[in-house]
Design a protein that fits this description.
mainly alpha, two-stranded antiparallel ribbon
């Protein structure tokens, strides 16, 4: 059995792999948060793809490849099949994308969806890991311990389920950072547990192993990772956040005026009149005497004839004296007395009428110089 070194370059490769796993998890969880706040199906699909690339590509597969740079078998060179290596990267991205789609889409049975998505994503990540190990070419035969392989698959499933649960629940930056640190530990633990299950039995070399050396793959894979990380950062920085949307909505409401809040637009004059301060009504002083309204005489609007008639005394017909039962004047005396009273009443009424007419007409005008008669009152004739 050949001697195997997992840290051929010291702690450089595990440290770099852990940093990459944390970075990929951080970007992926941030994209998952943007997925939950997206308003359209196109935007949600966009953020779902970016989250799968960040977690499955940068956080898992790139970490796996960097950790494999520290893997060394004494007595044989190691080469990599380019096709299988690329297939392992694609498998990791697709598996994580399926798990995220199951966990993030929908609102009912969230726990069940997280578990189901975690199982599928974990199996896919384990398949990515062992596909990448199967891409190795060396002078010997590789064997695996079934127990440790099962442990690595279990760690992959649990890590994937935890990652999906964090993608569904976390929102704040401190929580996302803490979740990324935990996911980095889980991913590295799964990788090194799977690597520990491998053993190599050397065989005599007939031909050198085919494939590309790790040094030949570092440059293209490194450039791909750098551009992928920069693209993810640019997408996260360029996309509007919830605060940006709130600010844009506020500016749009200020520019649109009352239309933004459902009110009909008013002319400028009405707006100015509505916004102008209302004058305070002036109260009259309390100590100023109020003018007493003059009342017109009740008979001012009636004609003169009606005024005359109203001025005449209203005489009621004299009541017929009751006949005395015992003794009294005769019938002739009563009739004479009644006639005298009626005559006196008529004379008095005529005199009162002439006096009232003379008061209404007033004195006569003075005659002119050519007049031969003197001032007299016609009533004296």
């Amino acid at each position: 059995m050949a001697e195997i070194h997992h840290l051929a370059h010291g702690w450089v490769t595990p440290t770099a792999s852990y940093v990459l796993s944390v970075l990929g998890s951080l970007l992926g969880l941030t994209c998952a948060v943007r997925f939950r706040t997206a308003n359209s199906p196109g935007a949600r699909n966009f953020w779902l793809i970016l989250a799968a690339v960040a977690i499955g590509g940068t956080g898992i597969w790139t970490m796996h490849f960097v950790a494999m740079l520290g893997f060394d078998v004494v007595g044989t060179p190691i080469r990599y099949d380019v096709g299988l290596t690329a297939a392992s990267a694609l498998l990791g991205i697709v598996a994580v994308g399926i798990g995220l789609a199951i966990a993030l889409n929908g609102t009912s049975a969230r726990q069940l969806r997280i578990v189901g998505g975690g199982v599928l994503a974990g199996l896919g990540v384990a398949g990515m890991h062992y596909t990448g190990m199967a891409a190795m070419r060396l002078d010997g035969e590789i064997d695996y311990s079934i127990t440790r392989v099962g442990m690595s698959i279990g760690i992959a499933v649990v890590a994937a389920a935890v990652a999906l649960w964090l993608a569904v629940t976390v929102r704040k930056a401190p929580a996302i950072l803490a979740a990324a640190l935990i996911m980095g530990v889980a991913v590295n633990g799964m990788h090194f547990t799977g690597m520990s299950a491998m053993s190599v039995h050397l065989e005599p070399a007939v031909t050198p192993p085919s494939g590309a050396a790790a040094s030949q793959l570092i440059l293209p894979i490194g450039l791909t990772v750098v551009f992928a990380v920069l693209g993810l950062l640019y997408a996260l920085m360029a996309a509007p956040t919830d605060e940006d949307r709130a600010g844009l909505a506020y500016l749009a409401a200020r520019q649109d005026g009352p239309d933004a809040v459902g009110e009909a637009p008013r002319p400028i004059q009405q707006q100015a009149a509505a916004n102008a301060p209302r004058p305070i009504p002036q109260q009259p002083p309390t100590n100023t005497p109020r003018p007493i309204p003059r009342q017109a005489p009740a008979n001012a609007s009636r004609p003169i004839q009606q005024q005359r008639q109203a001025a005449l005394p209203q005489h009621q017909p004299p009541a017929v004296p009751q006949q005395r039962t015992n003794s009294g004047p005769s019938l002739g005396e009563q009739l004479g007395s009644l006639q005298r009273e009626q005559a006196e009443a008529a004379a008095q009424a005529h005199a009162d009428g002439d006096e009232h007419t003379r008061k209404l007409q007033g004195p006569r005008r003075m005659p002119s110089a050519n007049s031969s008669w003197t001032f007299r009152d016609r009533a004296d004739k």
